[in-house]
Amino acid sequence: MSSRNLRQHRLSRATAALSGRKRGAQPKVVALGGGMGLSASLTALRRITGDLTAVVTVADDGGSSGRLREELGVLPPGDLRKALAALCGDDEWGQTWAQVIQHRFESKGDLHEHAVGNLLIVALWEQLGDHVQALDLVGKLLGAHGRVLPMSAVPLELQALVRGHDLEHPEEVVTVRGQATVALTPGEVQSVHLVPADPPAVPEAVAAVLDADWVVLGPGSWFSSVIPHLLVPELLDALVTTKARKVLSLNLAPQPGETEGFSPQRHLEVLGRHAPKLAMDVVLADEAAVPDRESLADAAQRLGAAVELAPVASPDGVPIHDPELLAAAYDRIFRMHGRIGPWR
Predict the structure, then answer these.
(1) Residue 197, Cβ density class (10 Å: 0-12 exposed, 13-18 middle, ≥19 buried)
(2) 278-301 pLDDT, tens digit each
(3) Which end of the chain is more exposed for a tag (fewer CB within 10 A), N or C?
(4) The 3-state secondary structure of 204-221, one letter per residue
(5) What's the pTM value of the predicted model, to 2 decimals?
């Protein structure tokens, strides 16, 4: 059987397994991240649990979000919008609203490239004066299968120490400012930090982590979407002290710019340097994306985690996660590694 046919076969099996899951008590799951990586996790996780909370980074400063942030002084809404869209159901209502809030205007004026969902979220923030209440209301309108929360209620700036950002001075380490710039920076990212340095966490996000059965971190842009959650002190404390089990979900390939040339195990190493007290339980990786399984297992062990390899990439060869395959992998991990609970 060819590699493509094998993945198609596994996708069919995963879909059948998920459709046959018994309903009833379900795990409380919190997923942390931002952008398309978090969307991939949420699209998968909503297939296996009805008790799902997304905690989203708020350091974006590019595109529509950056323009709204600069003009109105609000949190960047883009990653929050993407998370809400990912939680929309597969029925006509859910897919219609997902398309509406993701729609971007095309014009020669000020509305060009603004997303409808960004404007809706910001309008409700201004009307209600409450970030969480407004996002809950948008989720109710969309029929979202879960809740979306910002990790902090203040806009954050991401800064990175980068070696070789200036190609003429390859050993020089400079500070690169802004999430959009960090995501595409040339050179080697050494570390990242937030400004302000000790931002307050949204209390509902902290409470969700402490009350969870499972916490999922990643996939996503490692330095600009995943690690920022570990730089919010109250959120990191919750991740360290929660009784929930924790999954670290790896990317399918290094990201050009911030993690170019990174091996899977190097992703674990830099995460460990940013949060040395944080232990994980499981590291999930696509089996075809791990050339050195022994080195990954060693790096995972230093985080206290076991490695689970599974086919989670799209069968068509595009480096994106397949929702059904990723859902099947999460479901298997929750059942095999989860603490005993009423949902098992």
Answers:
(1) exposed
(2) 999 999 999 999 999 999 999 999
(3) N
(4) HHHHHHHHCCEEEECCCC
(5) 0.89
